[in-house]
Amino acid sequence: MVYLLLGTGFEETEAIAPLDLLRRADIPVLTVGVSGKIVYGSHGIGIEADILPGEMDLTQMEMIILPGGLGGVASARASKEALDALRFGWENGKYVAAICAGPTVLADLGITDGKNATCYPGCEGQMGCANMVPGAACVVDGKLITGTSAGCAIPFGLQLVAALKGQQVADAVAQEIVIR
To answer: How far apart are CA 19 and CA 27, in angstroms?
Structure first.
């Protein structure tokens, strides 16, 4: 199971594009309403989350994803359940992914220490001891996957698909959406 954390003020593109790509690849994904069942993104788009944090079965987790958006990141930081789920994923060898300002939460938890990573330009100072990779849309370092911004949501989402189902499936999804 893949869990996609949604907190009030999340960046819609960074959540919906990867969610769509994962589901196109037949990967089970549940959205988790960190701030409640209906969560509004940074541009006022409301999403009905599939579940609330207490409903996650962490023993079934394959991957956990944190989109950016300053409000969404603040919501995740304020949620003990969200932070515990991210920490659990990392400590149990699951994929942990974040995009935009989301990787700064992973840095707070020490997940990015000594790892290659990227984040939204200007947030590098909040990345702790990560090895920053400038100019990358998406960076993979073992089970850690980070993306730069909303403009990189498609490459980020395709990398999530590749991590879980292989490059051939990611390429098939990319072909299906006619990415150029």
So the answer is: 9
Model's pTM, two decimal places? 0.97
Q: State the catalytic residue, choosing from 100, 123, 138, 152.
A: 100
Q: Are 5 and 32 within 8 A, CB to CB? A: yes
CA gap 98, 81 in Å, rounded:
17
Q: What is the pLDDT of residue 157?
A: 98
How many other C-beta atoms can be found within 10 angstroms of the C-beta atom of residue 126? 16
Contact in structure between 70 and 64 (CB atoms under 8 Å):
no
20 and 5 Cβ atoms separated by less than 8 Å: no
SS3 state at 56 = coil
Closest CA to 3 of 88, 69, 127: 88
Please report which confidence band the pLDDT of residue 173 belongs to, taking 50, 70 and 90 as the band edges.
Answer: very high
Examine the residue annotation and report whether 129 is marked as an active-site residue of this protein. no
Distance CA 100, CA 68 (A): 5
